Prior knowledge:
By secondary structure, the chain is α/β, with parallel strands linked by helices.
Amino acid sequence: MKIEQNIKIQLNQTFPLTIKRLGINGEGVGYFKKQVVFVPGALPGEEVVVEATKINPKFAEAKIKKIRIKSPHRVQPLCPVYDVCGGCQLQHLHYAQQLKEKRDIVIQSLERHTKLAIDKLDIRETIGMQDPWGYRNKSSFQVGQKDGKVLAGLYGLNSHQLIDIDQCAVQHSQTNEATTKVKKILEELKIPIYNEKSRKGIVRTIVTRVGVQTGELQVVLITSQKELSKEDLIIAEIQKRLPNIKSIVQNVNGQKTSLIFGEETTALAGSEFIQETLGDLQFELSARTFFQLNPIQTVNLYNEVKKAAALSGKEKVVDAYCGVGTIGLWLADQAGEIRGMDIIPESIEDAKKNAKRHGFSNTKYVPGKAEEVLPKWVKKGWQPDVVVVDPPRTGLDNQLIQTILQVKPQKLIYVSCNPSTLAKDIQTLSSKYEVKYIQPVDMFPQTAHVECCSLLVLK
């Protein structure tokens, strides 16, 4: 038996595999001679023949050579560049089944990273969308050139090949239309397109954003330098071909970096921002304002936060990682006081403006890290009843977890975009908090991402 365990999969080896489940990145997971094998594009229940493409000490990666037994949930992807783009991972899986698999991804994370009795946990069915296409309100497409033709899209999966995307199936139709027309204008006016290798050329990226509820459109041209040749002509053509354009903006990024935006932003025509509404709230979105990419599901997610908070009008609520204040303002009409903090000072200024615009006087926003700000408030005798956290993919800062365990708010509502870090953090918090339930929400249909709203209460 011992010899058996030492047999390792060889590179380019072909072997049969039964897919047991989906991994956190949407790939099929199977086991060959007790080794984990990840297979992009394979679905649970399928029997496939695969070829090993990468060998790691703890797992192997492989590609499908042949599907022997197909999943009944396998469907034809809608997008023509689905295989090469890599922006979506689950278009080949029927949507109803995507929702089930996303719940399963949450369960797998809890099994892997916690000691909780998973079968006793209330992990709810994933809240999906009625129409799981065309939901993204913003696109950032790199610009390139090939044989005089201007391309705009994403770099292909594991390659530096720019995939020209005309109609992205998950993008709002107005953002698709705007990108296509701007690309055409740049081509017709022969505007120099930035080349990463030579670092010559001007236009690097086309960013488009639409207010889904308002229909207002913004186009941002990200350039390598301040001088934009034929600027007036570009503006005139954009305004002519996109009649509902509200905001044309230039952002300068001359750095050799994978970051999209540079520091300098100028409005070229129209307003600096567009308006968007979420429920009863209105927001002004400037080029660099972070805003949820799927406003329809954001309303569903924030309503889940409101349900979990179940406020009576008296509670002191902390909105950690508050950004421009969206979650806190969603709760403000039912709370005694909302206090938020964020490390980005501009976001705090926006949060203050947003609160003022909506007539809320029970809010307070300060720049800083939650783990540093919260203890100061508690020291001054301000004890929160509810803490809402919506951290980045890396999860909660350990210092913040320790702060929460010391401050002991009655309720902790954890909004997460990464089931693995959610599970790890829940395990640490479980010394004093009990998980009442976890509600998965599908913010990004056709991808492997899953958002969760979890309610934790003090034991």
